[in-house]
Amino acid sequence: MISKILLEWFYCHKRNLPWRHSYNPYEVWISEIMLQQTQIDRVIPFFNHWMERFPNLAELTEASEEEILKLWEGLGYYSRARNILKAAKQLVHMGYSTVPPDEAVLRKLPGIGAYTAGAILSIAYNLPFPAVDGNVRRVFARLFNIDMPVISGMGLDLLNNYVLSTLPSENARDFNQSVMELGALVCIPRSPRCPLCPLQKFCQAFQEGEQNNRPITNKKAGIQKKKAVAGIFYCDKFILLRQRETDGSWGGLWEFPWGFEHDDLAAEEVLMKEIDKVLGTASFTLRSLGRVRHSIMNTQIDLNGYVASLPSLVHVETPFKWVMPKELSKLPLQGGSAKLLHLFIKKSRPSSIKGLPHEDI
Questions:
Q1: Would the pLDDT of 249 be above 80?
Q2: Kind of pairing, strands 299-309 and 224-235?
Q3: Which pTM value belongs to this model?
Q4: Of 199, 224, 271, 295, which is least surrounded by CB within 10 A?
Q5: b/e map of 134-165 (b: 16 or more CB within 10 Å)?
Q6: pLDDT digits (tens, 9 = 90+) for 274-326
Q7: Strands (E), 224-313
Q8: Taking the C-alpha atoms of 280, 282, 284 and 288 in order, what is their torsion angle to the nearest 10 degrees?
Q9: Residues of the signal sequence (predicted)?
């Protein structure tokens, strides 16, 4: 009964999303990775650009990691992009031309866990696999009034049992999407729109007046605020960049030299300490550029920007590199550095750097 009512609601209210046009397994996979911790409206243009550039698995495997990261620039959580490329190469090496309907194969690929495998198998292939994401957890935690955290342990096991008992054997594709859609449009995290819910009369949390208290969640860590300083160092038509190591946050991305501020040093001193070991005795004067804000995970970074013009090029070692504007437009920039660059372009009229455009790179 629940699945029938939910499917009827879904057919009337489902959104027109580009990855729903054909349910191509490759497209479903890319969309699911992009949608992890990212809003749909933000994903759509990235998804469309990706499919224009890499319409299938074979073309994707021909790309370099740097090209992948550049296309991903602005979407965040860059390990997702690197895992996509690794997984694509593994699939082609195993002889697949697309993402296969094999749970064992999928679960061995980097970046694919239980949810993503279930989403691919059910949405792309219409196989009866559950796909339990945050929306699904919220809907079922309220529907069955689960009074314990459902992110792991007993609570998650209980919720998974409810999902499996409700999942139809012949229409898993639309059922899984209908639950996700309900969670995104109606059974939202705060102030759920219960009067619009097709499952209101079945919802145990609503009957008990507990809908605003479900799901029970573990207390989240608060937002950390940090201050940092970065510098745009240039000479004639060259800009100094540094490439991050492939591991960790922003792995493989390019950035301007920067460091975190601390109480015992002024911002300029922090930056000079970072850059002295790179530029040595080069002569330059730091000029204030302004501030931008950048966030990663639960950390908000207030980035204080400076600009300096060098009279001549100084030899630099890896991971530093002098790049020209035309090369800059092809490199994947870390988010804070991209914002600083745009601020610099906006304030530099005419441009201080030969060949640097006056619009966003």
A1: no
A2: parallel
A3: 0.85
A4: 224
A5: bbbbbbbbbbbbbbebbeeeebbebbbebbee
A6: 898 899 878 899 999 999 998 877 789 999 999 999 999 999 999 999 999 88
A7: 224-235, 238-243, 254-255, 258-260, 287-296, 299-309
A8: -30
A9: none
Half-sphere exposure of 327 (CA within 13 A, CB side): 10
Token pair of 350 as six digits: 């005419």
**pLDDT grade, residue 217 (50/70/90)?**
confident
74-83, 112-121, 215-224: least confident range: 215-224
User: Considering only the top CATH level, what class is 2-213?
Assistant: mainly alpha
CATH number for the domain whose boundaries are 224-347: 3.90.79.10
- C-alpha neighbours within 13 Å on the C-beta side of residue 12: 10
pLDDT above 90 (res 221): no
Contact of 235 with 313, CB cutoff 8 Å: yes
**Token pair belonging to 116:** 């993503």
Q: Are strands 224-235 and 238-243 parallel, antiparallel or unpaired?
A: antiparallel
Residues with a catalytic annotation lie at 32
Please report which residue ranges of 284-334 form alpha helices under DSSP H.
325-328
User: 3-class secondary structure for 190-246?
Assistant: CCCCHHHCCCHHHCHHHHCCCHHHCCCCCCCCCCEEEEEEEEEEEECCEEEEEECCC
CA-wise closest residue to 56 among 17, 103, 15, 22: 22
Domain boundaries in the chain? 2-213, 224-347
> DSSP states of 76-104 as a string?
--THHHHHHHHHHHHHHHTT-SS--S-HH
pLDDT value for 62: 97
User: Which pLDDT tens digit goes with each residue over 127-172?
Assistant: 999 999 999 999 999 999 999 999 988 999 999 999 999 999 999 9
